[in-house]
Amino acid sequence: MSALSDLKRHLRPGQVYRRKDLARWSNAVDRHVRQLMEEGRLEKVSPGVYMTPRKTRFGAAPAKPEKLVATFLGDDRFLMVSPNAFNGLGVGTTQLYNDPVVYNRKRHGRFKLDGRVYDFRMRSSVPRQLSKELLLVDLLHNLGRLPEDSSALLPRALKRAREMDRSRLARAVQDFGSARAERLLAPVLEETRRRDVNPALTRAYDQAWTLYEARCLWNVRRVAHPTPGDALDIANRLRRYGDMSARRLATHIEDEARAA
Prior knowledge:
This protein has 260 residues and is α+β, with helices and mostly antiparallel strands. It is 51% helix and 13% strand. Helix 5 crosses helix 7 and helix 9 (199-216) runs antiparallel to helix 11. The radius of gyration is 27 Å and the shape is elongated. The relative contact order is 0.07. The model has no long low-confidence stretch (mean pLDDT 84).
């Protein structure tokens, strides 16, 4: 079997390969790639990236965008977003967009893959899944890039944020890592935090700090408006480091946290 035939044996229809992937099966990869392209066995989709065409009854089918992007990046940790998804948030965006946005850890810029332009934006942290909370954070991060009037869009986006689950929205802000979105959403997150405060839970939380700060809570940061999660953390420390009275207070805090 010739070296070229051996390379052909490894190719799978619809798959995308980097040059270094093909080099594992070839002793003259550049010459073999040229031959395969001439034969129609390979198509160049971007510099150093090739696709094996997949034939259907309607003709050659394009590679799946996820495969193209993963191969181009050499990394499967990315989040691909269509800006058209903003229209589903109900905040007044109506424009249609052609270029998907790819948040990733390796590339930044606009690149054409298999004839379509992708907008790659590099970030230090890339969430794994797209949620409505993350989509809203993305919209606020890109507010100045959208064709809609940002002065009219921002109040509607913040109104939508107030309707979302606070903890999920806060996690989306943290995961996305946008200073602009964090600044815009800070008043909303604080407002919803105050709104969700349980007075009985706050009293029990404050009592724990008054009685057991030195003994049990020396390495914990006190918060003004505790969430059930904050309170349960305190209850756990009362059980671990406190006496019988502290454990009774922990039980009370747990009951209030579950009722919140």
